[in-house]
Design brief:
Dihydrodipicolinate synthase; 4-hydroxy-tetrahydrodipicolinate synthase activity; alpha/beta; TIM Barrel; lyase
Length: 294
């Protein structure tokens, strides 16, 4: 697709009491996000608990999205696995369905791995994808994976795989790293994962964000991700969110804004936030965004 990447809602995944995915609620949230100004939605990402969603369920989600009339060009698919073969299979299935991009995290089971090892892993994924390989956003989120993608590694990957490695989602929260990434690879799609740095990063050439907060504050996050508008309220809210496990906390606020209690549920090994802490988080949200809250 041409133009800036813009804002993608890192779609939360609703789970029924038996742990299964509630497809109608997920589709509704995807359509709601797009209608509110998001340029795409990202399924199977960190906020979507993608590492808990197996290949069969992934196929069911993609089919449900397409059957519901969602255009695949508005879908980004996360891939969060350790096996290069599994990564290629998952990415290939999403690309076959027409997904706009693949958000590809590095393998995370082994720690203290080298750039050479990571380069070979990504190379294996792309080789197994073959002619399908395109529009890959490599995902730097060391707080989760414990594996950092160096600026040098990104340079090696983009030069070895032009037209395949087309961007980076940087969720490091390391502003000097983000600055260097923008300075050295500005012609790539650089997406800022930490909303506290989002507006400034966009003003320096970043192309937007894949944001969990877009699930419940799409207009406000879009102003930052597309127009580079600062919003101190968002920065303050992120501080509040980081007091809790982030994905369950995001789901609390999705539930608050939509009025749908299903969003309180998460999959193991995550656990839901207590009622007491839900009340505290909602109160913090209300104090910052009272006029927007439902």
């Amino acid at each position: 697709m041409t133009g800036k990447f813009g804002l993608s809602a890192a779609l939360t995944t609703p789970f029924a009491q038996d742990g299964s995915i509630d497809f109608p609620t997920m589709i509704t949230q995807a359509k709601r996000s797009l209608a509110a100004g998001c340029n795409s939605v990202t399924v199977f990402g960190t906020t979507g608990e993608g590492s808990t969603i197996g290949n069969r369920e992934r196929a069911e989600v993609l089919s449900a999205c397409l059957d519901a009339g969602l255009d695949a060009k508005f879908l980004v698919a996360g891939v969060l696995v350790d096996s290069a073969q599994d990564a290629a299979d998952q990415a290939g299935a999403a690309l076959d369905a027409g997904a706009r991009n693949i958000l590809l995290a590095p393998p995370s089971y082994f720690k203290n791995v080298t750039d050479d090892g990571l380069f070979e892993w990504f190379s294996s994924v792309f080789q197994q994808l073959g002619d399908k390989a395109r529009d890959i956003l490599v995902y730097n989120i060391p707080s989760v994976t414990m594996v950092a993608l160096s600026v040098e590694l990104i340079g090696r990957l983009r030069h070895a795989f032009p037209g395949i490695v087309t961007g980076v989602k940087d969720s490091s929260g390391d502003w000097p790293y983000t600055q260097r990434l923008l300075a050295e690879h500005r012609d790539l799609i650089i997406l800022i994962g930490d909303e506290r740095h989002l507006a400034q990063g966009v003003r320096l050439g970043g192309q937007g964000a894949i944001s969990g907060c877009a699930n419940f504050l799409p207009s406000e996050i879009r102003a930052m991700a597309v127009d580079g508008v600062e919003d101190k309220r968002i920065e303050d809210l992120v501080v509040e969110l980081l007091k809790y496990p982030v994905t369950p906390a995001v789901k609390v606020l999705v539930s608050h804004v939509t009025g749908e209690k299903i969003w309180h549920s998460v999959r193991p090994p995550l656990v839901s936030i207590s009622a007491e802490n839900r009340t505290k988080l909602v109160a913090a949200f209300e104090s910052l965004f009272r006029s927007q809250a439902a």
